[in-house]
User: Fold this.
Amino acid sequence: QSKVCGNLKKSNRCPQQNSSFGLLKFTNENSARNRLHVSMSSSSTSHGTAQALIFDCDGVILESEALHREAYNQAFREFDVNYHWSEEYYDELQNQVGGGKPKMRHYFGIHGWPDSKLGTSPESQEDRDFLIDSLQDRKTQIYQEFIANGVAVARPGILELMDSALEQRKERNLRVAICSASTKESCLFVLKNLLGLDRFNSFDLILAGDDVPNKKPDPMIYTVCSERIGVDPSQCIVIEDSKIGLLAAQSAGMKCWITYTSSTEKQDFSGAEKVLPDLSSVTLEDLFPMYSKA
Assistant:
């Protein structure tokens, strides 16, 4: 069986059959950006209650804050936008606002909508949307160039933990997913380059920021993930790197482990199950202690 789920606009639910979960498949580069091809299989097996391990992308799979900031600044320069985000300010901004377009809207709303090579400071919503979309599209291209050139590397322990989870998913009745605040185009490009296609295609579900209308710290992306993979939120463990991500996971009713980065290490992670500098010493049995008793 198969179904197609597009971006969610008015509802956070993608209709699905009972006792089923979505397995994300991308048929080619164009359809990967435009739709989700989801094949169905049973979520109820003889291995007990289904559980899920869900990874954030930026900051968890790779430490990418500096690359994102430089990509935005380069896009600003190319569009003759007279703004520059310092390292200190970007750390503050990214820990307040989730998603690239919301970040720019937030910043421009405070500091003023800028003149650019597209024209004078936009006043209408349509012109503001066009400026934001144009900047974000160029920023994504620049960021992808950084990734393609091998500038980014996986964080310590992440690939080993992923591989362990993916290898044991059938045995453990475990779903493995990724929920990223990045745009779909950027998310897919990064994951394919950093994880490799074999590992990338093994995930049960991958959701990007533009698959849901509400961004973290809103819990929608995690709530939708839970619904699509057919796992109760109480049985989901999320790996995040920021307070925004922690709040999103907690609000969705999920447990959350934090692997902080240099830009998030001073944040308040109250309520997290664990707070660690990386995943180099974390095993699947640490996350799901019942596995060590099986």
